[in-house]
Protein backbone atom coordinates (compact mmCIF):
# COMPACT_ATOMS: atom_id res chain seq x y z
CA UNK A 1 0.00 0.00 0.00
CA UNK A 2 1.29 3.54 0.70
CA UNK A 3 1.17 6.46 -1.67
CA UNK A 4 4.18 8.17 -3.19
CA UNK A 5 4.61 11.49 -4.95
CA UNK A 6 7.45 13.48 -6.44
CA UNK A 7 7.81 16.96 -7.89
CA UNK A 8 10.44 18.83 -9.86
CA UNK A 9 8.66 22.17 -9.91
CA UNK A 10 8.85 25.91 -10.31
CA UNK A 11 7.31 26.61 -6.90
CA UNK A 12 7.88 25.49 -3.33
CA UNK A 13 7.50 21.71 -3.31
CA UNK A 14 6.26 21.10 0.26
CA UNK A 15 2.65 22.40 -0.17
CA UNK A 16 2.37 20.65 -3.53
CA UNK A 17 3.58 17.38 -2.05
CA UNK A 18 1.21 17.63 0.92
CA UNK A 19 -1.75 18.40 -1.35
CA UNK A 20 -0.90 15.42 -3.58
CA UNK A 21 -0.49 13.20 -0.52
CA UNK A 22 -3.96 14.23 0.63
CA UNK A 23 -5.28 12.65 -2.53
CA UNK A 24 -3.31 9.51 -1.76
CA UNK A 25 -4.22 9.22 1.91
CA UNK A 26 -6.74 6.53 0.94
CA UNK A 27 -3.68 4.28 0.51
CA UNK A 28 -2.66 4.54 4.15
CA UNK A 29 -2.43 6.98 7.02
CA UNK A 30 0.00 5.48 9.53
CA UNK A 31 2.58 8.22 8.93
CA UNK A 32 3.59 10.75 6.30
CA UNK A 33 6.79 12.46 5.25
CA UNK A 34 8.48 14.55 2.61
CA UNK A 35 12.04 15.27 1.50
CA UNK A 36 13.20 18.19 -0.60
CA UNK A 37 16.39 19.48 -2.14
CA UNK A 38 16.98 23.15 -1.37
CA UNK A 39 20.06 24.86 -2.84
CA UNK A 40 21.51 21.41 -3.25
CA UNK A 41 20.82 20.29 0.35
CA UNK A 42 18.62 17.29 1.03
CA UNK A 43 16.26 17.68 4.01
CA UNK A 44 13.20 15.82 5.29
CA UNK A 45 10.26 16.06 7.69
CA UNK A 46 8.20 13.13 8.95
CA UNK A 47 5.27 12.71 11.32
CA UNK A 48 3.44 9.71 12.67
CA UNK A 49 -0.33 9.41 12.13
CA UNK A 50 -2.42 11.21 9.60
CA UNK A 51 -1.18 13.74 7.08
CA UNK A 52 -2.54 16.60 9.14
CA UNK A 53 0.27 15.93 11.64
CA UNK A 54 2.86 16.43 8.91
CA UNK A 55 1.11 19.63 7.80
CA UNK A 56 1.26 20.93 11.39
CA UNK A 57 4.92 20.03 11.65
CA UNK A 58 5.67 21.91 8.41
CA UNK A 59 4.01 25.04 9.80
CA UNK A 60 6.47 25.09 12.71
CA UNK A 61 9.40 23.64 10.85
CA UNK A 62 9.09 24.45 7.13
CA UNK A 63 11.05 22.61 4.47
CA UNK A 64 12.01 24.81 1.54
CA UNK A 65 12.99 23.56 -1.93
CA UNK A 66 11.38 23.20 -5.33
CA UNK A 67 12.13 19.51 -5.79
CA UNK A 68 10.86 16.84 -3.48
CA UNK A 69 9.33 13.47 -2.81
CA UNK A 70 6.58 12.48 -0.38
CA UNK A 71 4.94 9.46 1.17
CA UNK A 72 1.85 8.40 3.07
CA UNK A 73 2.31 5.05 4.79
CA UNK A 74 0.37 1.90 5.48
CA UNK A 75 2.80 0.00 7.69
CA UNK A 76 4.05 -3.37 6.49
CA UNK A 77 7.51 -3.75 8.03
CA UNK A 78 7.88 -1.94 11.33
CA UNK A 79 5.36 -0.19 13.53
CA UNK A 80 3.95 3.21 12.62
CA UNK A 81 6.57 5.58 14.08
CA UNK A 82 8.53 8.63 12.99
CA UNK A 83 11.62 6.49 12.67
CA UNK A 84 9.93 4.03 10.33
CA UNK A 85 8.24 6.80 8.32
CA UNK A 86 9.33 7.52 4.76
CA UNK A 87 11.26 9.11 3.11
CA UNK A 88 14.13 6.90 4.22
CA UNK A 89 17.43 8.67 4.02
CA UNK A 90 20.93 7.31 3.86
CA UNK A 91 23.62 9.99 3.46
CA UNK A 92 22.93 11.79 0.20
CA UNK A 93 19.87 9.82 -0.92
CA UNK A 94 16.20 9.79 0.13
CA UNK A 95 13.73 7.15 -1.00
CA UNK A 96 9.95 6.71 -0.89
CA UNK A 97 8.50 3.30 -1.56
CA UNK A 98 5.13 1.64 -2.09
CA UNK A 99 5.25 -2.15 -1.96
CA UNK A 100 7.35 -4.77 -0.22
CA UNK A 101 11.01 -5.57 -0.83
CA UNK A 102 10.78 -9.30 -0.29
CA UNK A 103 14.52 -9.98 -0.24
CA UNK A 104 15.32 -7.20 2.21
CA UNK A 105 16.75 -9.60 4.80
CA UNK A 106 19.25 -10.92 2.29
CA UNK A 107 20.15 -7.37 1.23
CA UNK A 108 20.50 -6.32 4.87
CA UNK A 109 22.90 -9.20 5.49
CA UNK A 110 24.93 -8.13 2.47
CA UNK A 111 25.06 -4.52 3.66
CA UNK A 112 25.97 -5.66 7.17
CA UNK A 113 29.02 -7.43 5.71
CA UNK A 114 30.16 -3.97 4.58
CA UNK A 115 29.74 -2.70 8.11
CA UNK A 116 26.51 -0.86 7.31
CA UNK A 117 24.02 -0.61 10.20
CA UNK A 118 20.28 0.06 10.27
CA UNK A 119 18.15 2.60 12.05
CA UNK A 120 14.67 1.37 11.18
CA UNK A 121 12.66 -1.84 11.02
CA UNK A 122 11.60 -1.22 7.43
CA UNK A 123 12.39 -3.01 4.20
CA UNK A 124 12.72 0.36 2.44
CA UNK A 125 15.71 1.57 4.43
CA UNK A 126 17.68 -1.18 2.68
CA UNK A 127 16.99 0.55 -0.65
CA UNK A 128 18.37 3.85 0.61
CA UNK A 129 21.39 2.22 2.22
CA UNK A 130 22.22 0.14 -0.83
CA UNK A 131 22.01 3.21 -3.08
CA UNK A 132 24.31 5.12 -0.74
CA UNK A 133 26.71 2.17 -0.79
CA UNK A 134 26.82 2.22 -4.61
CA UNK A 135 27.26 6.02 -4.61
CA UNK A 136 30.26 5.61 -2.32
CA UNK A 137 31.73 3.09 -4.74
CA UNK A 138 31.84 5.87 -7.34
CA UNK A 139 28.61 5.37 -9.28
CA UNK A 140 26.52 8.36 -10.34
CA UNK A 141 23.11 8.85 -8.67
CA UNK A 142 21.29 7.36 -11.68
CA UNK A 143 23.67 4.38 -11.90
CA UNK A 144 23.46 3.78 -8.14
CA UNK A 145 19.65 3.87 -8.16
CA UNK A 146 19.43 1.57 -11.20
CA UNK A 147 21.92 -0.89 -9.72
CA UNK A 148 19.90 -0.95 -6.49
CA UNK A 149 16.63 -1.48 -8.36
CA UNK A 150 18.23 -4.44 -10.17
CA UNK A 151 18.79 -6.10 -6.79
CA UNK A 152 15.22 -5.78 -5.51
CA UNK A 153 12.70 -8.59 -5.43
CA UNK A 154 9.03 -8.13 -4.61
CA UNK A 155 6.73 -5.27 -5.45
CA UNK A 156 7.72 -1.66 -5.60
CA UNK A 157 7.05 1.80 -6.85
CA UNK A 158 10.03 3.94 -5.87
CA UNK A 159 11.18 7.53 -6.12
CA UNK A 160 14.75 8.60 -5.31
CA UNK A 161 15.95 12.13 -4.53
CA UNK A 162 19.61 13.08 -4.19
CA UNK A 163 21.60 15.64 -2.26
CA UNK A 164 23.17 18.15 -4.65
CA UNK A 165 20.67 17.30 -7.43
CA UNK A 166 17.75 19.65 -7.50
CA UNK A 167 16.72 18.66 -11.02
CA UNK A 168 16.62 14.89 -10.73
CA UNK A 169 14.22 12.19 -9.56
CA UNK A 170 14.74 8.53 -10.39
CA UNK A 171 11.57 6.45 -10.31
CA UNK A 172 10.82 2.76 -10.83
CA UNK A 173 7.83 0.48 -11.00
CA UNK A 174 7.46 -3.25 -10.50
CA UNK A 175 4.20 -4.65 -9.16
CA UNK A 176 2.99 -1.28 -7.84
CA UNK A 177 1.58 1.40 -10.13
CA UNK A 178 3.38 4.66 -10.91
CA UNK A 179 2.34 7.58 -13.08
CA UNK A 180 4.56 10.36 -14.40
CA UNK A 181 2.91 13.76 -14.88
CA UNK A 182 4.16 16.27 -17.45
CA UNK A 183 3.89 19.98 -16.56
CA UNK A 184 5.21 23.15 -18.07
CA UNK A 185 8.94 22.84 -17.30
CA UNK A 186 7.83 20.73 -14.36
CA UNK A 187 7.64 17.00 -13.87
CA UNK A 188 5.69 14.95 -11.33
CA UNK A 189 5.46 11.39 -10.03
CA UNK A 190 2.45 9.84 -8.32
CA UNK A 191 1.11 6.48 -7.26
CA UNK A 192 -1.89 7.34 -9.37
CA UNK A 193 -2.99 10.04 -11.76
CA UNK A 194 -5.61 11.33 -9.31
CA UNK A 195 -2.82 12.47 -7.00
CA UNK A 196 -1.52 14.63 -9.84
CA UNK A 197 -4.92 15.86 -11.04
CA UNK A 198 -4.56 19.51 -9.96
CA UNK A 199 -1.04 19.62 -11.42
CA UNK A 200 -1.44 18.10 -14.87
CA UNK A 201 -3.63 15.89 -17.02
CA UNK A 202 -0.71 14.69 -19.18
CA UNK A 203 0.22 11.31 -17.83
CA UNK A 204 2.67 8.58 -18.78
CA UNK A 205 2.13 5.29 -16.97
CA UNK A 206 5.26 3.27 -16.26
CA UNK A 207 5.01 -0.38 -17.22
CA UNK A 208 6.22 -3.38 -15.27
CA UNK A 209 9.97 -3.23 -14.70
CA UNK A 210 10.31 0.34 -16.01
CA UNK A 211 12.66 2.84 -14.48
CA UNK A 212 12.53 6.52 -15.27
CA UNK A 213 14.90 9.46 -15.03
CA UNK A 214 13.08 12.75 -14.63
CA UNK A 215 14.30 16.32 -14.90
CA UNK A 216 12.04 19.36 -15.17
CA UNK A 217 12.23 19.21 -18.97
CA UNK A 218 12.91 15.57 -19.79
CA UNK A 219 11.75 12.05 -19.12
CA UNK A 220 13.79 9.01 -20.08
CA UNK A 221 12.27 5.58 -19.50
CA UNK A 222 14.15 2.29 -19.69
CA UNK A 223 12.64 -1.16 -19.47
CA UNK A 224 13.83 -3.91 -17.13
CA UNK A 225 16.50 -4.94 -19.66
CA UNK A 226 17.86 -1.38 -19.60
CA UNK A 227 16.70 -0.55 -23.13
CA UNK A 228 15.15 2.82 -23.92
CA UNK A 229 11.37 2.41 -23.88
CA UNK A 230 8.70 4.48 -25.55
CA UNK A 231 5.69 4.96 -23.32
CA UNK A 232 2.70 6.86 -24.55
CA UNK A 233 1.80 10.17 -22.91
CA UNK A 234 -2.00 10.41 -22.58
CA UNK A 235 -4.24 13.30 -21.82
CA UNK A 236 -6.65 11.98 -19.28
CA UNK A 237 -9.91 13.28 -17.91
CA UNK A 238 -9.66 13.63 -14.19
CA UNK A 239 -11.81 14.90 -11.41
CA UNK A 240 -9.79 17.92 -10.19
CA UNK A 241 -11.92 18.68 -7.23
CA UNK A 242 -11.21 16.77 -4.10
CA UNK A 243 -14.58 15.49 -3.01
CA UNK A 244 -15.94 17.19 0.08
CA UNK A 245 -18.44 15.95 2.65
CA UNK A 246 -21.15 18.46 1.78
CA UNK A 247 -23.70 18.59 4.58
CA UNK A 248 -22.60 15.22 5.94
CA UNK A 249 -20.42 14.52 8.94
CA UNK A 250 -18.49 11.76 7.20
CA UNK A 251 -17.65 10.77 3.64
CA UNK A 252 -19.25 7.41 4.33
CA UNK A 253 -22.60 9.06 5.14
CA UNK A 254 -22.38 11.14 1.99
CA UNK A 255 -21.49 8.13 -0.12
CA UNK A 256 -24.38 6.10 1.29
CA UNK A 257 -26.75 8.98 0.53
CA UNK A 258 -25.43 9.31 -3.04
CA UNK A 259 -26.47 5.80 -3.98
CA UNK A 260 -29.77 6.59 -5.73
CA UNK A 261 -27.93 9.01 -8.03
CA UNK A 262 -24.86 6.92 -8.83
CA UNK A 263 -26.83 3.69 -9.22
CA UNK A 264 -29.13 5.54 -11.64
CA UNK A 265 -26.06 6.63 -13.59
CA UNK A 266 -24.69 3.07 -13.68
CA UNK A 267 -28.03 1.73 -14.90
CA UNK A 268 -28.41 4.47 -17.54
CA UNK A 269 -24.98 3.83 -18.96
CA UNK A 270 -25.66 0.14 -19.68
CA UNK A 271 -29.40 0.26 -20.25
CA UNK A 272 -30.10 3.35 -22.32
CA UNK A 273 -33.51 4.99 -21.91
CA UNK A 274 -36.22 3.01 -23.68
CA UNK A 275 -34.11 -0.15 -24.11
CA UNK A 276 -34.92 -3.42 -22.36
CA UNK A 277 -31.61 -4.89 -23.40
CA UNK A 278 -28.23 -4.31 -21.82
CA UNK A 279 -25.78 -2.62 -24.15
CA UNK A 280 -22.07 -3.00 -23.45
CA UNK A 281 -20.04 -0.34 -25.24
CA UNK A 282 -17.09 -1.29 -27.50
CA UNK A 283 -17.20 -5.04 -27.07
CA UNK A 284 -18.39 -8.10 -28.93
CA UNK A 285 -18.78 -10.02 -25.67
CA UNK A 286 -21.12 -12.97 -26.34
CA UNK A 287 -21.99 -15.19 -23.37
CA UNK A 288 -23.50 -17.88 -25.59
CA UNK A 289 -19.96 -18.79 -26.69
CA UNK A 290 -18.77 -19.29 -23.14
CA UNK A 291 -18.92 -22.33 -20.86
CA UNK A 292 -18.03 -20.75 -17.56
CA UNK A 293 -17.45 -17.55 -15.67
CA UNK A 294 -14.65 -17.14 -13.17
CA UNK A 295 -14.99 -14.13 -10.90
CA UNK A 296 -12.19 -12.88 -8.69
CA UNK A 297 -12.03 -10.01 -6.19
CA UNK A 298 -11.26 -9.05 -2.59
CA UNK A 299 -13.31 -7.79 0.35
CA UNK A 300 -16.56 -6.07 -0.51
CA UNK A 301 -15.96 -6.60 -4.23
CA UNK A 302 -15.74 -10.34 -3.49
CA UNK A 303 -19.19 -10.21 -1.86
CA UNK A 304 -20.48 -8.44 -4.95
CA UNK A 305 -19.14 -11.38 -6.99
CA UNK A 306 -20.75 -13.94 -4.65
CA UNK A 307 -24.09 -12.16 -5.15
CA UNK A 308 -23.57 -12.13 -8.91
CA UNK A 309 -22.98 -15.89 -8.86
CA UNK A 310 -26.67 -16.34 -7.90
CA UNK A 311 -27.73 -14.04 -10.75
CA UNK A 312 -25.59 -15.68 -13.42
CA UNK A 313 -26.65 -19.15 -12.33
CA UNK A 314 -30.35 -18.40 -11.91
CA UNK A 315 -30.90 -15.98 -14.78
CA UNK A 316 -28.34 -17.12 -17.37
CA UNK A 317 -27.88 -20.77 -16.30
CA UNK A 318 -24.18 -20.22 -16.43
CA UNK A 319 -21.69 -22.07 -14.21
CA UNK A 320 -19.79 -19.60 -12.07
CA UNK A 321 -16.79 -19.83 -9.80
CA UNK A 322 -16.00 -17.06 -7.37
CA UNK A 323 -12.65 -16.70 -5.68
CA UNK A 324 -10.81 -14.47 -3.29
CA UNK A 325 -7.92 -13.08 -5.33
CA UNK A 326 -5.21 -13.89 -2.77
CA UNK A 327 -6.24 -17.59 -2.89
CA UNK A 328 -6.91 -17.77 -6.61
CA UNK A 329 -3.50 -16.45 -7.64
CA UNK A 330 -1.54 -19.25 -5.96
CA UNK A 331 -4.00 -22.10 -6.47
CA UNK A 332 -3.21 -22.46 -10.18
CA UNK A 333 -6.83 -23.12 -11.17
CA UNK A 334 -7.25 -24.47 -14.71
CA UNK A 335 -8.79 -21.82 -16.97
CA UNK A 336 -10.07 -22.85 -20.38
CA UNK A 337 -10.37 -20.69 -23.47
CA UNK A 338 -14.17 -20.84 -23.13
CA UNK A 339 -13.99 -19.16 -19.71
CA UNK A 340 -14.69 -15.51 -19.15
CA UNK A 341 -12.45 -14.16 -16.38
CA UNK A 342 -14.12 -11.30 -14.54
CA UNK A 343 -12.36 -9.08 -12.00
CA UNK A 344 -14.18 -6.67 -9.74
CA UNK A 345 -12.38 -3.84 -7.98
CA UNK A 346 -13.36 -0.37 -6.85
CA UNK A 347 -9.83 1.01 -6.95
CA UNK A 348 -8.61 -1.14 -9.82
CA UNK A 349 -5.26 -1.30 -8.02
CA UNK A 350 -5.74 -4.17 -5.55
CA UNK A 351 -2.49 -6.13 -5.84
CA UNK A 352 -3.98 -9.61 -5.44
CA UNK A 353 -6.78 -8.95 -7.92
CA UNK A 354 -4.29 -7.57 -10.43
CA UNK A 355 -2.05 -10.61 -10.01
CA UNK A 356 -5.06 -12.93 -10.49
CA UNK A 357 -5.93 -11.05 -13.67
CA UNK A 358 -2.40 -11.51 -14.97
CA UNK A 359 -2.62 -15.22 -14.21
CA UNK A 360 -5.66 -15.46 -16.51
CA UNK A 361 -4.01 -13.59 -19.38
CA UNK A 362 -3.55 -15.87 -22.36
CA UNK A 363 -5.72 -18.57 -20.74
CA UNK A 364 -9.25 -17.16 -20.59
CA UNK A 365 -11.33 -16.21 -23.62
CA UNK A 366 -11.50 -12.64 -22.37
CA UNK A 367 -10.49 -10.61 -19.36
CA UNK A 368 -13.29 -8.33 -18.23
CA UNK A 369 -13.14 -5.97 -15.29
CA UNK A 370 -15.80 -4.08 -13.38
CA UNK A 371 -14.00 -1.06 -11.93
CA UNK A 372 -14.64 2.37 -10.51
CA UNK A 373 -11.38 3.96 -11.64
CA UNK A 374 -11.16 3.73 -15.44
CA UNK A 375 -7.46 4.72 -15.46
CA UNK A 376 -6.50 2.03 -12.97
CA UNK A 377 -4.08 -0.84 -13.65
CA UNK A 378 -6.85 -3.46 -13.62
CA UNK A 379 -8.92 -1.45 -16.13
CA UNK A 380 -5.94 -0.85 -18.38
CA UNK A 381 -4.89 -4.51 -18.38
CA UNK A 382 -8.37 -5.87 -19.18
CA UNK A 383 -9.73 -6.67 -22.64
CA UNK A 384 -12.96 -5.00 -21.57
CA UNK A 385 -13.26 -2.58 -18.64
CA UNK A 386 -16.78 -1.79 -17.47
CA UNK A 387 -16.92 1.34 -15.29
CA UNK A 388 -19.42 1.36 -12.43
CA UNK A 389 -19.87 5.16 -12.38
CA UNK A 390 -19.88 5.43 -8.58
CA UNK A 391 -17.67 8.55 -8.60
CA UNK A 392 -14.77 9.03 -6.19
CA UNK A 393 -15.25 6.94 -3.05
CA UNK A 394 -13.26 8.32 -0.12
CA UNK A 395 -14.60 6.40 2.89
CA UNK A 396 -12.46 3.32 3.48
CA UNK A 397 -15.62 1.26 3.91
CA UNK A 398 -16.97 0.69 0.45
CA UNK A 399 -20.66 1.59 0.08
CA UNK A 400 -21.76 3.21 -3.16
CA UNK A 401 -19.11 1.27 -5.08
CA UNK A 402 -20.71 -1.96 -3.80
CA UNK A 403 -24.23 -1.10 -4.96
CA UNK A 404 -22.89 0.16 -8.30
CA UNK A 405 -20.84 -3.05 -8.69
CA UNK A 406 -23.99 -5.05 -7.96
CA UNK A 407 -26.01 -3.04 -10.47
CA UNK A 408 -23.44 -3.53 -13.24
CA UNK A 409 -23.05 -7.24 -12.43
CA UNK A 410 -26.82 -7.75 -12.52
CA UNK A 411 -26.97 -6.07 -15.92
CA UNK A 412 -24.12 -8.28 -17.09
CA UNK A 413 -26.07 -11.34 -15.92
CA UNK A 414 -29.12 -10.07 -17.85
CA UNK A 415 -26.93 -9.65 -20.94
CA UNK A 416 -25.72 -13.24 -20.42
CA UNK A 417 -29.35 -14.41 -20.10
CA UNK A 418 -30.25 -12.59 -23.33
CA UNK A 419 -27.23 -14.04 -25.19
CA UNK A 420 -27.96 -17.56 -23.94
CA UNK A 421 -31.72 -17.30 -24.42
CA UNK A 422 -32.47 -18.29 -20.84
CA UNK A 423 -34.95 -15.47 -20.14
CA UNK A 424 -37.91 -14.54 -22.30
CA UNK A 425 -38.33 -11.01 -23.66
CA UNK A 426 -41.02 -10.37 -21.04
CA UNK A 427 -38.77 -11.54 -18.25
CA UNK A 428 -35.96 -9.32 -19.52
CA UNK A 429 -38.35 -6.37 -19.77
CA UNK A 430 -39.58 -7.09 -16.23
CA UNK A 431 -36.02 -6.94 -14.89
CA UNK A 432 -35.26 -3.81 -16.90
CA UNK A 433 -38.33 -2.06 -15.46
CA UNK A 434 -37.40 -3.09 -11.93
CA UNK A 435 -33.85 -1.80 -12.44
CA UNK A 436 -35.12 1.55 -13.68
CA UNK A 437 -37.24 1.87 -10.54
CA UNK A 438 -34.35 0.96 -8.25
CA UNK A 439 -33.02 4.50 -7.58
CA UNK A 440 -36.35 5.66 -6.19
CA UNK A 441 -36.68 2.53 -4.04
CA UNK A 442 -33.18 3.22 -2.70
CA UNK A 443 -34.38 6.68 -1.71
CA UNK A 444 -37.22 5.13 0.27
CA UNK A 445 -34.75 2.85 2.02
CA UNK A 446 -32.63 5.87 2.96
CA UNK A 447 -35.71 7.38 4.62
CA UNK A 448 -35.38 4.66 7.26
CA UNK A 449 -32.21 6.32 8.51
CA UNK A 450 -33.67 7.33 11.87
CA UNK A 451 -35.10 3.88 12.65
CA UNK A 452 -31.80 2.28 11.67
CA UNK A 453 -29.90 4.68 13.93
CA UNK A 454 -32.03 3.52 16.87
CA UNK A 455 -31.21 -0.13 16.21
CA UNK A 456 -27.54 0.81 15.79
CA UNK A 457 -27.54 2.47 19.19
CA UNK A 458 -28.36 -0.93 20.68
CA UNK A 459 -25.85 -2.73 18.46
CA UNK A 460 -23.06 -0.44 19.64
CA UNK A 461 -23.22 -2.08 23.08
CA UNK A 462 -22.63 -5.58 21.68
CA UNK A 463 -19.35 -7.42 21.66
CA UNK A 464 -20.29 -9.74 18.81
CA UNK A 465 -22.98 -9.57 16.15
CA UNK A 466 -24.23 -12.18 13.69
CA UNK A 467 -25.76 -11.42 10.31
CA UNK A 468 -27.97 -14.05 8.69
CA UNK A 469 -29.30 -14.34 5.16
CA UNK A 470 -30.37 -17.01 2.72
CA UNK A 471 -29.98 -17.12 -1.06
CA UNK A 472 -29.19 -13.66 -2.44
CA UNK A 473 -29.16 -12.34 1.12
CA UNK A 474 -26.33 -14.63 2.21
CA UNK A 475 -23.49 -12.69 0.55
CA UNK A 476 -25.10 -9.51 1.85
CA UNK A 477 -25.05 -10.93 5.38
CA UNK A 478 -21.28 -11.31 5.01
CA UNK A 479 -20.96 -7.81 3.57
CA UNK A 480 -23.03 -6.39 6.45
CA UNK A 481 -20.72 -8.11 8.94
CA UNK A 482 -17.62 -6.81 7.13
CA UNK A 483 -18.98 -3.24 7.17
CA UNK A 484 -19.74 -3.44 10.88
CA UNK A 485 -16.40 -4.88 11.92
CA UNK A 486 -14.22 -2.62 9.80
CA UNK A 487 -15.61 0.66 11.08
CA UNK A 488 -17.02 -0.12 14.54
CA UNK A 489 -14.42 -2.77 15.55
CA UNK A 490 -17.25 -4.98 16.83
CA UNK A 491 -16.68 -8.61 15.98
CA UNK A 492 -19.28 -9.65 13.41
CA UNK A 493 -19.84 -12.68 11.17
CA UNK A 494 -22.19 -13.30 8.31
CA UNK A 495 -23.74 -16.75 7.93
CA UNK A 496 -26.12 -18.53 5.62
CA UNK A 497 -29.23 -18.83 7.80
CA UNK A 498 -29.44 -22.59 7.27
CA UNK A 499 -25.84 -23.06 8.35
CA UNK A 500 -26.34 -21.63 11.82
CA UNK A 501 -27.38 -24.91 13.38
CA UNK A 502 -24.16 -26.53 12.19
CA UNK A 503 -22.09 -24.73 14.78
CA UNK A 504 -22.50 -20.97 15.17
CA UNK A 505 -25.78 -21.39 17.06
CA UNK A 506 -23.62 -22.29 20.05
CA UNK A 507 -22.71 -18.61 20.27
CA UNK A 508 -26.28 -17.46 20.75
CA UNK A 509 -27.29 -16.13 24.15
CA UNK A 510 -29.12 -13.09 25.45
CA UNK A 511 -26.13 -10.88 24.67
CA UNK A 512 -25.97 -11.73 20.99
CA UNK A 513 -27.71 -9.43 18.48
CA UNK A 514 -28.54 -11.21 15.22
CA UNK A 515 -29.38 -9.14 12.15
CA UNK A 516 -31.67 -11.12 9.84
CA UNK A 517 -31.86 -9.91 6.23
CA UNK A 518 -35.12 -11.37 4.93
CA UNK A 519 -37.30 -9.85 2.22
CA UNK A 520 -40.62 -11.70 1.83
CA UNK A 521 -39.25 -13.88 -0.99
CA UNK A 522 -39.31 -17.57 -1.93
CA UNK A 523 -36.98 -18.55 0.94
CA UNK A 524 -38.52 -16.26 3.58
CA UNK A 525 -40.24 -19.04 5.53
CA UNK A 526 -37.00 -20.98 5.80
CA UNK A 527 -35.13 -17.93 7.04
CA UNK A 528 -37.84 -17.19 9.58
CA UNK A 529 -37.55 -20.74 10.95
CA UNK A 530 -33.83 -20.14 11.47
CA UNK A 531 -34.65 -16.81 13.12
CA UNK A 532 -37.03 -18.61 15.51
CA UNK A 533 -34.19 -20.96 16.44
CA UNK A 534 -32.16 -17.89 17.41
CA UNK A 535 -34.97 -16.37 19.47
CA UNK A 536 -35.62 -19.68 21.22
CA UNK A 537 -32.08 -19.33 22.57
CA UNK A 538 -32.67 -15.72 23.66
CA UNK A 539 -30.76 -14.19 20.75
CA UNK A 540 -31.84 -10.61 20.00
CA UNK A 541 -33.11 -10.38 16.45
CA UNK A 542 -33.10 -7.25 14.31
CA UNK A 543 -35.36 -8.20 11.43
CA UNK A 544 -34.81 -6.35 8.15
CA UNK A 545 -37.76 -7.05 5.88
CA UNK A 546 -40.67 -5.53 3.97
CA UNK A 547 -44.24 -4.88 5.21
CA UNK A 548 -45.38 -8.44 4.48
CA UNK A 549 -42.34 -10.02 6.07
CA UNK A 550 -42.55 -7.87 9.19
CA UNK A 551 -46.31 -8.47 9.56
CA UNK A 552 -45.70 -12.20 9.40
CA UNK A 553 -42.62 -12.56 11.57
CA UNK A 554 -42.17 -9.61 13.92
CA UNK A 555 -43.46 -11.36 17.07
CA UNK A 556 -40.70 -11.58 19.62
CA UNK A 557 -38.02 -9.73 17.64
CA UNK A 558 -35.84 -7.07 19.28
CA UNK A 559 -36.41 -4.50 16.55
CA UNK A 560 -37.41 -4.23 12.90
CA UNK A 561 -36.10 -2.25 9.95
CA UNK A 562 -38.71 -1.75 7.25
CA UNK A 563 -37.72 -1.87 3.59
CA UNK A 564 -39.92 -1.13 0.58
CA UNK A 565 -41.09 -4.01 -1.62
CA UNK A 566 -38.64 -4.90 -4.33
CA UNK A 567 -38.24 -7.29 -7.26
CA UNK A 568 -36.53 -10.35 -5.68
CA UNK A 569 -33.45 -10.10 -7.94
CA UNK A 570 -32.77 -6.56 -6.78
CA UNK A 571 -33.14 -7.17 -3.05
CA UNK A 572 -29.40 -7.40 -2.31
CA UNK A 573 -28.87 -3.94 -3.78
CA UNK A 574 -31.69 -2.43 -1.74
CA UNK A 575 -30.84 -4.25 1.50
CA UNK A 576 -27.25 -2.97 1.24
CA UNK A 577 -28.58 0.38 2.50
CA UNK A 578 -29.69 -0.84 5.97
CA UNK A 579 -26.52 -2.94 6.25
CA UNK A 580 -24.39 0.13 5.56
CA UNK A 581 -26.41 2.47 7.79
CA UNK A 582 -26.37 0.00 10.67
CA UNK A 583 -22.58 -0.15 10.49
CA UNK A 584 -22.30 3.61 10.07
CA UNK A 585 -24.49 4.59 13.02
CA UNK A 586 -22.95 1.92 15.25
CA UNK A 587 -19.50 3.33 14.50
CA UNK A 588 -20.69 6.88 15.15
CA UNK A 589 -22.23 5.76 18.45
CA UNK A 590 -18.92 4.16 19.39
CA UNK A 591 -16.96 7.23 18.33
CA UNK A 592 -14.58 5.41 16.00
CA UNK A 593 -12.89 6.99 13.00
CA UNK A 594 -15.58 6.17 10.43
CA UNK A 595 -13.83 7.28 7.25
CA UNK A 596 -10.35 6.13 8.15
CA UNK A 597 -10.69 3.16 10.50
CA UNK A 598 -7.61 1.88 12.24
CA UNK A 599 -5.20 -0.45 10.46
CA UNK A 600 -6.95 -0.13 7.10
CA UNK A 601 -6.35 1.61 3.79
CA UNK A 602 -8.70 2.23 0.92
CA UNK A 603 -6.56 0.60 -1.70
CA UNK A 604 -4.57 -2.53 -0.89
CA UNK A 605 -1.60 -2.51 -3.23
CA UNK A 606 0.50 -5.07 -1.37
CA UNK A 607 -0.06 -8.81 -1.00
O1 LIG B 1 -10.48 -1.58 -4.53
P1 LIG B 1 -11.04 -2.97 -4.36
O2 LIG B 1 -12.50 -3.04 -4.65
O3 LIG B 1 -10.26 -3.99 -5.15
O4 LIG B 1 -10.82 -3.29 -2.84
C1 LIG B 1 -11.16 -4.54 -2.33
C2 LIG B 1 -11.21 -4.51 -0.81
O5 LIG B 1 -9.97 -4.12 -0.30
C3 LIG B 1 -12.28 -3.54 -0.29
O6 LIG B 1 -13.54 -3.86 -0.79
C4 LIG B 1 -12.33 -3.59 1.24
O7 LIG B 1 -12.76 -4.83 1.68
C5 LIG B 1 -13.20 -2.47 1.78
N1 LIG B 1 -12.56 -1.84 2.92
C6 LIG B 1 -14.54 -2.93 2.24
O8 LIG B 1 -15.32 -1.92 2.75
From TrEMBL:
Q: Does the keyword Transferase apply?
A: yes
Domain Glutamine amidotransferase type-2 residue range list = 2-217
| Catalytic residues (UniProt) | 2, 602
Top-level taxonomic group: Bacteria
Keywords assigned: Aminotransferase, Cytoplasm, Glutamine amidotransferase, Repeat, Transferase
Catalytic reaction list: D-fructose 6-phosphate + L-glutamine = D-glucosamine 6-phosphate + L-glutamate
Enzyme Commission number(s) of this protein: 2.6.1.16
Q: Name one Pfam family in it.
A: SIS
Q: Where in the cell is it found?
A: Cytoplasm
Domain SIS, first and last residues per copy: 283-422, 455-597
Keyword Repeat included in the entry's annotation: yes
Q: What is its main location?
A: cytoplasm
Single GO term (MF): glutamine-fructose-6-phosphate transaminase (isomerizing) activity
Q: What does this protein do?
A: Catalyzes the first step in hexosamine metabolism, converting fructose-6P into glucosamine-6P using glutamine as a nitrogen source.
User: Oligomeric state and partners?
Assistant: Homodimer.
Q: What is the name of the protein in this document?
A: Glutamine--fructose-6-phosphate aminotransferase [isomerizing]
Source organism of this protein record: Ruegeria haliotis
